[in-house]
Each structure stands twice: as C-alpha cells, then as structure tokens.
Amino acid sequence: MSRYAIGDVQGCHDELLALLRALRFSADRDQLWFVGDLVNRGPQSLEVLRFVRDIGANAVTVLGNHDLHLLAVALGGGARKAKHGDTLEEVLAAPDRDRLLEWLLARPLAHLDAARGDLLVHAGLVPQWRAIDAARLAAEVGAALARDAPAVFAQMYGNEPDTWSDALSGPARHRFVINALTRLRYCTAEGRMDLKEKGPPGEVAPPLAPWFSFGDARSRGARVICGHWSALGYSDRNGVAAIDTGCVWGGALTALPLDDPDARPVGIACRGHRRP
Fold first, then answer.
1. Rounded Cα gap, residues 137 and 144, in angstroms
2. What's the CA gap between 212 and 124, in Å, rounded?
3. Are 202 and 232 in contact (CB under 8 A)?
4. What's the whole-model pTM score?
5. Measured at the alpha carbon of residue 11, what is the angle toward residues 9 and 16, in degrees to the nearest 5?
6. Where are the alpha helices (DSSP H) in the chain?
7. Residues 6+ apart with CB under 8 A from 212
8. CATH class entry, domain 3-269
9. Most Cβ neighbours (<10 Å): which of 135, 187, 192, 200?
C-alpha cells in the first residue's frame, strides 16, 4: 500500500483524476490523504464529493473551511448563507445531497496516525499544541457536531478568542479549535492567531510569523501535513509539509508520497477556474 497526501481540490474533479492517473493510484491498494477543502470555487464539487466518498476507507479526509461552509449553509438552520462566488449549488440540489452531507459531516478536523507520527489537518496548529492535543481537540468538536451540528454552526464564525487557553469552554473553545485547524496561517510565539493575514511569508511583520516557524513548537516530533495556504505554495520545513499549490487559481494540484522520505511531490497543472 502506498499513501499519498493530496492538496486542496476545491471542486477540481478533472485535475484530481489526472493526478491519480499520474500516480497510478489503485483504490484497492493505495490510500489518499486529503487535506480538506474538497469543495467550492471550482466547477465540480459534487463530482469530487461523490468520488472521494466512494473510495471508502482508502480515503482519509479532514474538514477544511470550505467544507465547513458548505455544511453550515446546508445544515445551519439559516444561520449561514451562500456567498458570492460559491459553487455549491449542484451539491445542494443533488438527489444524494443528504447522504453526501452526512458523510462529509462525519469527517474529522484532524487525523493522527500515531504509529507513523503523521498528523493531517487543513490549516495548522498553535505552537502550544502537540499533535495528540490537536487530535483530541478535533475529536471534541467532532462530537459536538454529531450531537447538534446547527448549534455549532450558529456559534462557529468569528475571530475571537484569538489565544488558546485550556480554560476555554463551550462555543468559544469550539470556535478557537475550528479556526486553528481550518483557517490558521499566522500567529505569534505565544499562540495569538491573526486570521486576517493571508499573504506569503515576508509580507507580514513580526511578532506574527507562519504558525510552523517557531522552533519550540510542541508539535515537533510529528510530521504535519496541511493545505489551505495557496500563497505559500509547496513547503516542507520544520516537520510540516504544506501542499496547497493553488489548483483552483491556476496553479497545480499536488500529491505528496508519504512513505518514501526521498520522494518528490507530483503536480498536475490546473486550468485556473478562478482569478486571484
């Protein structure tokens, strides 16, 4: 069995199929790790959801911010509306909509393979979290979504609190965990998140820095595989492999072989369904 991590697909179904052909992927033999954001902005979110779901146990998928947006629009009881530029209409109108949304809602916010030391998340971790902390906190939010998803979605949006504390509870705790795991790019060494900054490193002044740049981060010792940051591009440093290479924006869809330390990423050039 070979494992491949796949960057943000965002509805780019044709590019995903082309990438899997280049990898000679076998659904019976190999495993795909998707960093989240399967849907939105690209033209074929419905096809992507159906395809990944049908791979079954050989697809490991975590939730990204666009996946959560789809779920909030569909299941949030009117608390969240579709936005200009969304490409979710086909999913929302599909005859198998409910089955697809049920499957998506059951995806975790983080996946930890403790035996191999690999953690899959969409965006990042604050420096105060170990990989096991991220997985545990993701499971807390997953349990809350399973109990009452509309209640979680009603309280999910906002940038506060911006600093982690074990004393956080209820919606504030869930919101921080969701923001870190699905939206984080920049923070301070103390773990204060700035969710408004989106540009590449070098354009943001200290004390903010990319979340993975702090040498004393507690997640050291695990390999973190993430996406979300197309302006960063492919990056493999400090034990973090970031693989969002901006497929929907005309970049590439990237796969990273996970079991060969000398393997290079494989990319498929994308047509560019949106303009930055």
1. 11
2. 8
3. no
4. 0.96
5. 50
6. 13-23, 45-55, 65-75, 89-93, 97-105, 131-154, 170-183
7. 124, 224, 237, 238, 239, 240, 242
8. alpha beta
9. 187
